[in-house]
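Weekly puzzle thread! Below is a chain. First person to post its structure in token form gets bragging rights.
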Amino acid sequence: MNSSAVTLSVRRRDGEVVENQVWSTATLDLLRLAAPWRTFRWYKGQKHYSGTYWSATTQSHVSYESRLELARLLFADFDSSVHGIAAQPFLLKAVVEGKVRKHIPDYFLITEQGPVVVDVKPYQRLAKPVVAFTFAWTRQAVESRGWRYEMWSEPPEAELENIRFLAGFRREWLFAPDLLDALRRADLDGVPMGEAAERLPGPEPCVRAAIHHLLWRHDLHMDLTEPLLPSGVLRRSA
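Winning reply:
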């Protein structure tokens, strides 16, 4: 595929549409501020589950069109290396096998390791010829820029449930700064989470909630491949 023949169109947040930009020269500034290309619809009886999620990363709402897309959004928001998230960021066009092909990726992530273009699809649908074909030429276009392309499907259930739970504690302004500072200073490395909540003065539910916020922020760590339990051991960031 000739990357110079690949183009993209972007809808800015002010509603202006920038069409047919050369893919190989489109700037990050253009993509970082992209609004969703498609209109998200909600209607009675629809088969997919659409909505918006308030992202701690972007400090704004990000759209999703399915529960699986919401799951990927949760993982992106939890990932401390991600600094920007855009949903349905652009319309990509390319001539493949003599025909004009079009595709709208699900997410565009700006990470410390570089941009990542993400398509979300259930495992059972990845083998469908039309899906495999679309994702193959999209990957080729994305990787021609030195960016990473990701096909994302169902994550491990326990890890998803833990991240979904911790996301309930992502809003930092809900926590007393003095309590967060005290927890950051406390020697909690190797301490079971249930015991840690008893080590600081104050209502135990508030302390426990603040610990969950620090887990979301990666100031503290636990094994998220297993269910979060009071017996789970806390670890400090390296």
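Puzzle host: Confirmed. Bonus trivia for everyone else. The longest helix spans residues 129-143.
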